[in-house]
Amino acid sequence: MASGKILVVDDEYAIRDMLRMALEIADFDCIETDNISDAHSLVVDERPDLVLLDWMLPGGSGIELLRRLKRSEATRAIPVIMLTAKSAEDNVIQGLEVGADDYLTKPFAPRELVARIKALLRRSQGMEDNQRLAFEELLLDADGRRVYLADKPISMGPTEYNLLYFFMTHPERAYSRSQLLDHVWGANVYVEERTVDVHIRRLRKALQSHGKDYSGLIQTVRGTGYRFSVRGLEDH
């Protein structure tokens, strides 16, 4: 049984061929395309478990497709890893802020890519906890992997969900960015620490929904990192 279905979107045949071989060796099903239009159709029709999306594509940027996927309720939760030859920090941050869950800068080792994919799928497909966590009007349903604010569902990506789950199960303690990476991303996966800041911003934005502002629950601890604190709402 395959480990999951991965959509590869890259206009270079040699890159797609390398990715397909690496994914098939790792027991993933692989579908592929070289353009944005076909990529969106494949996401809708095939419902891949994860998308590997090149930054530069014919007819537009992979960022355009990423924005389209994240705007739709039907495709928003599908994890996306950006593949980019651009190493400038603003390009990486732009992809994360639009909604990418991770990124890799070319050239990269296939083994690292597979490790990133497996870690992201673990984050997106499940914490094996049967419980509901609540604070005032914020509710996290671990069974359904849903979050509610004022009895209405709020949308967030798998990484933001797992950050919130970790925070709600470990309240009132400050964690460094490195510790959050180990607990949420996985100790064997290399992700730069600035990635944590981007996902914290996205989590805080998600917690501002339905006329409520619970973003203050996620506190910045100067010189350390972040903390989930019920006292955050009192000061917010």
TrEMBL record:
The keyword Transcription applies. InterPro entries: CheY-like_superfamily, OmpR/PhoB-type_DNA-bd, Sig_transdc_resp-reg_PhoB, Sig_transdc_resp-reg_receiver, WalR-like, WH-like_DNA-bd_sf. One of its GO terms (molecular function) is transcription cis-regulatory region binding. Residues 5-121 form the Response regulatory domain. Residues 130-230 bind DNA. GO terms for cellular component: cytosol; protein-DNA complex. Keywords: Activator, Cytoplasm, DNA-binding, Phosphate transport, Phosphoprotein, Transcription, Transcription regulation, Transport, Two-component regulatory system. Residues 130-230 form the OmpR/PhoB-type domain. It comes from the Bacteria. The modification 4-aspartylphosphate is found at D54. It is found in: Cytoplasm. This is Phosphate regulon transcriptional regulatory protein PhoB. It comes from Luminiphilus syltensis NOR5-1B. The gene is phoB.
